[in-house]
Amino acid sequence: MTKEDIHLGDWQRLLFGDTPGVFAWEVVVRTLLIYLFFLGIMRLLGKRMSAQLTITELGVMIMLGGIVSVGMQIPNRGLLPVALLLLCVLLFQRGLNWLALKSRRVEVTLQGDLTLLVKDGVIQVEQLRAESVSHNELYAQLRDQKIRQLGEVQRLYLEGDGNFSVFKNETPPPGLSVFPAKDQRILEILATSDEQKVCLYCGHLAQPHAHNGKQCPNCSHDEWTTAVQ
Asked: Does pTM surpass 0.70?
């Protein structure tokens, strides 16, 4: 198409493209057939495709979108190649799942492994950096679990599918508050432990008066704040 063929008032081209208007009805039929076949493929892929997706499953979803769009909208492309490609994706994904079931190494490579982000109320700084998770994102996840301070957290894992799993301490020690600093009202009513301090960066709990002028042994930062009960 040359620029001479483009006219803003050409409603036939704007609405139907270069194809005859009757092709719009064919698009409806193509879409219906592909949609029904697509639902069957999704059902065979398993329940995981409608839950939180892993990396491989996300890749499959993107590929499926690219495959079905061609058969629905391009008049000189038949539906049989689309059906064959969908079947190939099904076999490919099922094959990867079978390999992951047989081999732990393959499973970790394809779907990722969990990462320990908080251990006994202390942030594992190196793991946090490796996963590119910010403190704000971590605290938001804890607040969503109704947790007020890090001492309440026995373990926090970042799962391979991107979800956070939190296990709480039954008898939590004092710890670093997870409330935002700008929310002064809630910070004022929190019970604090004046004699115990925690590292402002990782939540390491120091012994009384042991933090004065010293770096945190866990993360080497030197900013301390009052622990929250």
From this structure: no
Pick the CATH number of 115-228 from 3.30.240.20, 3.30.200.20, 3.65.10.10, 3.30.450.20: 3.30.240.20
Contact 198, 174 (CB under 8 A): yes
Nearest to 124 by CA among 203, 225, 215, 210: 203
* Strand partners of residue 22: none
Nearest to 12 by CA among 3, 2, 23: 23
pLDDT in tens, 75-105: 666 777 778 888 888 888 888 888 888 888 8
186 CB-near residues (< 8 Å, 6+ apart): 179
> Which phi and psi angles does 164 have, rounded to 5°?
-105, 135
Tokens of 164: 């956070």
Decide if pLDDT at 51 tops 60: no
